[in-house]
Amino acid sequence: MKSLCLVGRKRIALVDQSIPQIQYDDEVLLKVAFCGICSSDVLEYTSGPIFCSQPGEQHPLTGVRLPSCLGHEYSGTVVRMGANVINVKLGDHVCVDVAYGCNEQGAEPLCHACTLNYNNACARIALRGLGAPGGGFCQYVVLPSRCLHILPDSIPLDVGALVEPLSIAWHAVRVSGFLKGQTALIVGAGPIGLALILALQAHAAGQIIVSEPGPIRRQHARNLGATHVLDPTKFSSTIDLVAAISHLTPPFYEGVDVSFDCGGEQDTMDAVLKTLRLGGTAVNLAIWQNPKAQISPIDLTSRERKFMGSMGFCGEDMDQVIEALNRGIIPMERVQQLISSTVTLDNAIEYGFNALIRHRDRIVKILVSPATCEAQTEEESYEQSGEEYRDDTRRRNESRGSGSGSGSSKSSSSSKSSSSSKSSSKSKRHGDSRSRVHSSQRRSSQQRQQQRQQYYDQSGTAEMFDTEMNESDTRNFAMYSHEGSIGNCTDDPSDHTLV
Fold first, then answer.
1. Which pLDDT tens digit goes with each residue over 361-411?
2. Domain identity same for 60 and 81
3. Are strands 276-284 and 93-96 parallel, antiparallel or unpaired?
4. Which domain CATH number covers 294?
5. In this structure, is residue 323 part of a structural domain?
6. Eight-state DSSP code of residue 472
7. What's the CATH code of the domain at 52?
8. Left, alpha or beta for 71 (phi > 0: left; psi -120 to 50: alpha)?
9. How many domains are contained in the chain?
10. Least C-beta-crowded within 10 Å: which of 226, 314, 389, 451?
11. Average pLDDT over residues 289-297
């Protein structure tokens, strides 16, 4: 199979690897459907290794060496299972919690965070696809079943890949203590900032104010339903921006209840702190590249404001996002607006990573679809050879379902035959339905691509992948060179905030 890996300093490449094998009874083999390209993946390309191991060395926490498969925002289908897996079944569509903490590392004793099930804040935290095994830019991946979350039929697999960034936004809203009807400020309308709009709407926000310098990102914020969208470059100072935001917050016009920093700069931090009302809370989601920032303690003390961080998400956040999507609390069509394009694994470097580098302010989320990669023969035959595993799993499930005691002893041979027949029929129907799902997903993907193209045409950005790189393209990100299936980033970027 093919995997998109970090292979050296500022170098990513498509690597031929063997399809992974299940080693433990609690593991599953997942066929990856979609994997989103995150800014941290791009940062690993342009400036890495940062999270991954250094060339020639083992990762200090995970033991993984280069080449290391990237990708941590992904969904897929369960195609094989270990003998002790009970929380998912063959054919389930799932998304993945990629935290790789004490439990996964076999660390003893567990850190305080892991004893409380806050694996997002583990003292030894690593992420699958960023230094830990289990990256999603590949065709197949083996994972412990405990890190899988089942997607109901109502959630397509492309949206399933966005459950991870949505969960980051959801977690930030949850830990902030945000209440129904309150007012929020989002500084920075990148993928996480836009996801915050959807999470705040799901929490019944009264007003959602967005500050974003990029015109296309501002339009995305409006399309998603932000109440007010401001361009901070139109104000001569942070004080003027704060005054404008406060003017939008009646009845006291003293500022917002909760603010979220997705920018990771001194100016964005100043904005989220100074726009808070009495007793308000500012939340930092950005992974700052400059570790130094200035905060005036008196700004917090005099108005009893609070400043806190929000790190990733917990499993319960992912479950709540899936439930909100399933019930329509987060509208599916709005989530799909975040998908700028879908590319294959074969062209993910050129039309995925390099497109994001060249057009950072024009693109929200690019999905990679490993299932459409060339040379599928090996994988297809592999899945066909897995029929005996499906049969074994079916028998295990039937034996689990039979239970114990007098109730199970009363089952007749005719009922067993009927159950077997139903199981076989169900398996066939499920296979047929998966085929129909994949077909409908291809059609819906084409329709969304046409809709996005119409939007780009109307907004004057149809040249997204056609324009030549110029000086403004390199203002925030590095130039690149691309040869075949290998990407080499030649310069350090000047600005790499991770949300």
1. 899 999 999 977 654 434 443 444 344 344 444 444 454 444 434 333 333
2. yes
3. unpaired
4. 3.40.50.720
5. no
6. G
7. 3.90.180.10
8. left
9. 2
10. 451
11. 83
